[in-house]
Amino acid sequence: MNAGTADLLEARDLARSYTVRRGLLGRPTLVRAVDGVSLTVARGETLGLVGESGCGKSTTARLVLGIEPTDTGSVTFDGGAMPRSGTAAWAHLRRRMQMVYQDPLAALDRRLTVGVQIAEPLDIHRIGTAAEREERVAAVMAEVGLQPHHAARHPQSLSGGQRQRAVIARALVTNPELLVCDEPISALDVSIQALVLNLLGDLQERLKMGMLFVSHDLRAVRQISQRVAVMYLGRIVEEGDPDAVLHDPAHPYTQALVSAIPHPGKTTTRVILQGDPPNPANRPTGCAFHPRCPVATPTCRTQAPELKPRRSDGRRVACHVAHGEAAAARAPASLETC
Amino acid sequence: MAFVEIQNLSVAFGRSPALRGINLAVERGEAVGLVGESGCGKSITWLAALGLLPSLATVRGSVRIDGTEILGAPKARLEPVRGGRIAMIFQDPAASLNPVHRIGRQIGEALGLHRGMTGERAKAEVIRLMDQVGIPDAKNRINAYPHELSGGQNQRVMIAMALAGQPELLVADEPTTALDVTIQAQILDLLTTLRRDTGMALVLISHDLGVVSETCSRIAVMYAGRIVEEAPSGQIFTHPNHPYTRGLMGALPPLSGARHRLVAIPGSVPEAAQMPQGCAFAPRCSAATGRCTEVDPVPLPLTQDHSAACIHARPYAQAGQPLHHHAATTRERAMQ
After folding, report:
1. Which of A38, A56, A168, A193 could pair covalently with A185 via S-S, beta carbons 3.0-4.6 A apart?
2. Which helix (H) or strand (E) holds B335?
């Protein structure tokens, strides 16, 4: 094990494209789902990855775990290069990095009891004797707040909160060092979301895991992350401390995202973006956000901005205007508001 | 007289009650939010009111439009109301639109049905409606199929169809839940603009307190088939009185300030067939006392326009107004 301060997970320049065909006779087109994403997660740290549907955040989550092969780029886990997906070495490593899925009912098998499913990773990785496995399952169930009698139940006879606890227990049973959560609360009711967020926060603190928390919900990300990265069309456009990013977003897209959060008793004006979320199969030239951006300049149409620290405070942002490389068409203060 | 007056509306599927006595009034031009978690009955309320539930549902109570009873009314009396005076849009626009028909034809169909428009006149009106709901390039988009449009644009098409009947009330059932946040902001903005321009009333059904608070002036919080609290938007956030409303707010991660543990509501919503004795929320309520499991709470007025169905709720004074004495006395009577 690497004893140094090196990051637990380091991903560099990840890219992943898919070929899709529209209709039976349509021409195949290349969709760049992830287009040069670099990120790090330290032990005991949570990185929140936010963005709207189709921005590539879930693909990024699968790429860092090697569930899906990358086209280019590299992933380093605990100081060593990630073995190729599907190899024995990779399968062996997978017990140290686990995933929590969005919809607990879809992630669990209705025909198997919860206890059997929580024990499954131990069976797959051949960890411990039968008695040890049983003990470990009981321990991890207690850890996530399930009662011992829940082990004999089937998923459909549990409540939504209990089911997501079971999914988390299954991910934790092998004592992973990295937990990747892909929209773990978005299929749940508000009161249950709070329960799961509390649980994930507690577990991470107690077990000192590194965590990648993928979500479209900035509130949830702020609650649980030490760092947040905002994705737009396959790239990270801004990264920094969650409070700094939420209260003083540097990228125009983050500004719109933050101002769109519905908030009880909200009185401030809201930035309404024009147009639809972009199509990854038809990526705009230059900065991918420029067709919807209220402050886009001619430079933005031709040159893709680089993600780099802002001179004033070191915030990492990919925007010509935020870096002062291009004068804003209009001052950001006159963003279209309603 | 309110435009829509729902009184003591109850719905049961077999022996399972889905609605347990709803009282709700919607004034002309007013925006009312209905909030609650899945299964609380917020959608069923309007499906029942408009006679859209399957026949196996037992519906009781009264729903009056402008004083005319429509619950159990014959089809001839219902038809002009549904889609005409009251229109409804749903969560997933792609599921509500017909995938094999062009959107212009689908909006036109609504125009033919509710306003008897056909041909060129209808086409011109379709384009006007599409403009009104913010679909760019309406003249050409009229020929698009739903799959050629994004989720946000399809929701705009649904809103255009709803507007085709020039409704006096639009019931929007989780209209933005399937959409991204930036698109959600666009649609909520559109609904507010349309309401201002046409003067129609709006009922916004959502699980998201934030969404309704920004769009609606009055909010009703539902739990297990009942309205448990009702107040003007501002007051529900400054003086949440029902423990469930407080629970919903505590469960929402804050956007600023110190991060604290979220206050989760323990347990889960009761099964319809096994409603607990007394207050349905009592088993999950941190403030519940012995009486809560015996007394079925009725909504009690706390101020002139704020009520909560909790035996522990207390009337309070509003800025510039004395304690609502009438409320206090009514409450005392109810306690005895």
Report:
1. A193
2. helix B325-335
A259 at B interface, C-beta within 8 A: yes
Residue A92 class from Cβ within 10 Å (0-12 exposed, 13-18 middle, 19+ buried)? Answer: exposed
H or E segment at A80? strand A80-81
Domain-wise residue ranges, chain A: 112-173, 249-334
The tokens for B123 are 């086409």
- Six-digit token string for A180: 């990747």
Choose among B306, B317, B319: nearest CA to B231.
Answer: B306
Q: Residues for chain B: how many in total? A: 336
Quick check: helix, strand or coil at residue A10?
strand
Q: Which residue of B has its CA nearest to A220?
A: B253
Give A301-314 pLDDT, tens digit per residue: 999 999 999 998 99
Return d(Cα A73, Cα A14) in angstroms, integer: 4
Cα–Cα distances (Å) from B176 to A88, B91, B249, in that order, read 45, 7, 20
Are B197 and B189 a contacting pair, CB within 8 Å?
no
Find, among A219, A185, A226, A237, the residue nearest to A204 by Cα.
A226
What is the distance between the alpha carbons of residues B306 and B235, in angstroms, rounded to a whole number? Answer: 8
d(CA A30, CA A33): 9
Name the residue facing B210 among A191, A262, A277 (closest C-beta).
A262
| Residue B198, burial from CB neighbour count under 10 angstroms (0-12, 13-18, 19+) | middle
Q: Which residue of B has its CA nearest to A189?
A: B37
Write the Ramachandran bin of B166: left for phi over 0, alpha for psi from -120 to 50, otherwise beta.
left
Report helix, strand or coil for A178. strand
Provide the H-helix boundaries in chain A. 57-65, 88-94, 104-107, 114-124, 130-143, 160-172, 190-207, 218-224, 242-247, 252-259, 298-302
Angstrom distance (rounded) from CA A319 to CA B3: 51
Residue A309 C-beta-side C-alpha neighbours within 13 Å: 5
Residue in A with minimal Cα distance to B38:
A189
Per the CB < 8 A criterion, the answer to whether A237 and A37 are in contact is no
ipTM score: 0.81
> Vertex A106, ends A154 and A102: CA angle to 5°?
120
| B104 to chain A, closest Cα gap in Å | 20
CB A72 within 8 A of CB A15: yes
Q: Could you read off the pLDDT of A163-222 as tens digits, one per residue?
A: 999 999 999 999 999 999 999 988 888 888 898 999 999 999 899 999 999 999 999 999
- Do B86 and B4 contact (CB within 8 A), yes or no? yes
Length of chain A: 338
pLDDT in tens, B35-60: 998 889 999 999 999 999 999 999 99
Which residue has better confidence, A330 or A22?
A: A22
Among B262, B263, B265, B269, most A C-beta atoms within 10 A, so best to mutate, is B262
